[in-house]
Amino acid sequence: xxxxARAGELFMVGFHGTEPDAAFESLLREEEVGGVILFAxxxxxxxxxxxxxxxxxxxxxxxxxxxxxDQEGGIVLRLEAxxxxxxxALGAADDPGLTRRVxxxxxxELRAMGINMNLAPxxxxxxxxxxxxxxVRSFGADPNLVAEHGASYIRGHHEAGVLTTAKHFPGHxxxxxxxxxxxxxxxxxxxxxxxxxxxxxxxAIAAGVDAIMTAHVFFPAVEPEGGTPAxxxxxxxxxxxxxxxxxDGLVITDCMQMKAIADGVTTVEGAVxAIAAGxxxxLISHSYELQREAIAAVRAAIESGRIPAERVEAALxxxxxxxxxxxxxxxxxxAGAAPAADLSVIGSAQHQALAGEAAAAAVTAVGDLGGLLxxxxxxxxxxxxxxxxxxxxxxxxxxxxxxxxxAADLAPGLRTLAVSRDPSMDEVDRLVAEAAGxxxxLxxxxxxxxxxxxxxxxxxxxxxxxxxxxxxxxxPYDLLAAPETQGTVIMYEDRRPAAxxxxxxxxxxxxxxxxxxxxxxxxxx
Length: 525
Description:
Blueprint: E1 11-13, H1 22-31, E2 35-38, H2 46-58, E3 66-69, H3 87-93, H4 96-112, E4 117-118, H5 143-159, E5 165-169, E6 184-185, H6 190-195, H7 199-206, E7 211-214, E8 217-218, H8 234-244, E9 250-252, H9 259-262, H10 267-277, E10 282-284, H11 288-304, H12 309-326, H13 349-362, E11 364-367, E12 380-385, H14 402-410, E13 415-419, H15 425-434, E14 440-445, H16 452-463, E15 468-472, H17 478-481, E16 487-490, H18 496-506
Parallel strand pairs: 1-2, 1-10, 2-3, 3-4, 5-7, 6-8, 7-9, 12-13, 12-14, 14-15, 15-16
Antiparallel strand pairs: 11-16
């Protein structure tokens, strides 16, 4: 086949529903695409997931497809059979061995479902508390911490035979813009980038990471042309990543339908420019029409010489090498399916226990709680803000408060009231009145910095003379929005194991061994 005819191999594509339709199946066959990405929309159970991946592999003889997923843990879990902790919880626990064991557990479940590539770990150093899209997906604000746990995460996946993807290169941690919605800029010079953003990626390369995902972020210190995202920048992908950092593995783009690309260079033109710049695999997650158009545009660019032949050959080599590695642990039988796997590992008692162990190790206490604990449930009021996804990448549905659910089981005498995500002043006044007679008020917040009503509630309780302890259900940054408290107990994701661990600490049944993996300045004093 000519290089142009093989353009489809340079794409990873997604579809809607739990089964691919005929059009998508023909895309896989006719264009011989290199990979498929799965989301929660594609998965209903481990058994269905395995049937789906077997079917996808059967559509393509020869090398296995790369079948990828964002199974990071924490707030990004496409299939939630085990409530795996996220990166910042593992950073708070700060036990690289625990990170490796959790990573291996995640990878064992993926492998059992026929998924051979994880779009994790996140190696962004989250130094910006206002970051709307990374936050608790990062191991923390210390580049050495992120680097150490990232390397452990990579080792854990490799033990279980699943490919890893470090993201989002060169770094998305110091932005206040979500690239799903707009183009962010990181204005720092190269010396700062080397010390912070790039350090975890250097360590990941040394640890043998299989792939690196690009960021739709503009880095003026590296890319001279204003407003050019790293994903389509030759200076970033070839000059910085290939030549300066020495990475010869697979470079995959973040989804080219994100608005930082789609509203700028556009998805189709961006695909051409990304491959020309040094990307090997272009990710288009949602639109069949755009997938077809982009493959056609790349084919035309190869035929015209706009994408040089040597660039295409190098990309094809890396895609095929990754598929061969995936074909080691995931080798197909003559019928085209991956080897039979024991699905009982998914959500197993062993994995549930490991997730609980990690959640307990992450619980972090900040402030002077000594005179307030253990709480007396009958003299305490819990005000619990409902939890629900707020970022596109979460791709899940939740409801209620995990702390309220934990209290119902672990402290049935604890009076609990539900709180709106952004309570009005009338609701605040009502809740302050409800606190009359309580010795202590627990406020389980949820992204309080985004919802001023939560901060107003804490201020009003404190002004009325009520001792207040915060339970931060979604990470440490709520401390900045609600400092008028006696202390805070930090969960790093709104999942039941984290809530159970936090409540057991408040009840005096467990310790809070976690350390704060970010610097919040005076809020932590």
